[in-house]
């Protein structure tokens, strides 16, 4: 009776294990940014040795979980209609961005507390480029301010989203109000003086 070759099977098993571990990391860290690797391994249904065979450190695992969440988020954000008036397009983008940020606040907290400074912003490159292009278009239309550095504006928008998510998580801002608050804050930030 012929047997399956162990090479490809191990590779497929490894890929499934990696996917389960990353999914479990997203789930665990989204619930608790301090979730342990033991918790993540247990949720993934793998042993610690398997987890550490794929992710040597907790930081590597957190980064993989964040990258996975950002890749899923990119699919959502790339579908947002950015046509028409820049202010209206920004409101649509913020609504989608807010919902994604709200879902992954604790994961983002874990990443900010674990990854090297600046790495979280670096991983947010594609969303940041989208926001920057929209701001530039709004500036060209005269709808958005031009007196502050672009990198500052994009960073502040990112910070507003993260802060709103933290405020919601801490029950200091109602979840059903957060999208409106984020949009109003960012729109007022971008309004020319």
Structure description:
This protein has 193 residues and is an all-alpha fold. The protein has a domain at 59-190: Orthogonal Bundle (Tetracycline Repressor, domain 2). 76% of the residues lie in helices and 0% in strands. The chain is built from 10 helices and no strands. The chain has helices at residues 6-31, 37-44, 48-54, 58-77, 86-103, 105-114, 119-123, 125-141, 150-169, 175-190. Helix 1 packs across helix 2, helix 1 (6-31) packs across helix 4 and helix 1 crosses helix 6. The protein is elongated, with a radius of gyration of 20 Å.
Please render the helix and strand layout as text.
Elements: H1 6-31, H2 37-44, H3 48-54, H4 58-77, H5 86-103, H6 105-114, H7 119-123, H8 125-141, H9 150-169, H10 175-190
The CATH homologous superfamily of one domain is called Tetracycline Repressor, domain 2
Question: Structural class given helices, strands, pairing?
Answer: mainly alpha
Which CATH architecture of one domain is right? Orthogonal Bundle
Low-confidence stretches: 1-7
- How far is the first residue's CA from the last residue's CA? 79 Å
**Helix proportion:** over 70%
């Amino acid at each position: 009776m012929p047997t399956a070759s162990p090479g490809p099977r191990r590779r497929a098993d490894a890929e499934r294990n990696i996917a389960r571990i990353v999914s479990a990391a997203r789930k665990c860290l989204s619930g608790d940014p301090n979730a342990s690797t033991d918790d993540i391994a247990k949720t993934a249904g793998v042993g610690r040795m398997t987890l550490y065979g794929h992710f040597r450190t907790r930081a590597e695992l957190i980064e993989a979980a964040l990258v996975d969440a950002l890749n899923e988020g990119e699919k959502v954000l790339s579908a947002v209609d950015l046509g028409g008036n820049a202010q209206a397009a920004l409101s649509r983008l913020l609504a989608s961005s807010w919902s994604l940020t709200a879902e992954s606040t604790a994961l983002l907290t874990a990443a900010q507390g674990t990854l090297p400074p600046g790495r979280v912003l670096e991983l947010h490159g594609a969303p940041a480029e989208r926001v920057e292009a929209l701001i530039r278009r709004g500036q060209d239309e005269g709808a958005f301010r031009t007196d502050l550095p672009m990198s500052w504006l994009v960073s502040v928008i990112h910070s507003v989203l993260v802060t709103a998510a933290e405020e919601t998580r801490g029950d200091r801002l109602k979840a059903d109000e957060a999208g409106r608050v984020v949009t109003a804050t960012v729109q007022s930030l971008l309004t020319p003086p």
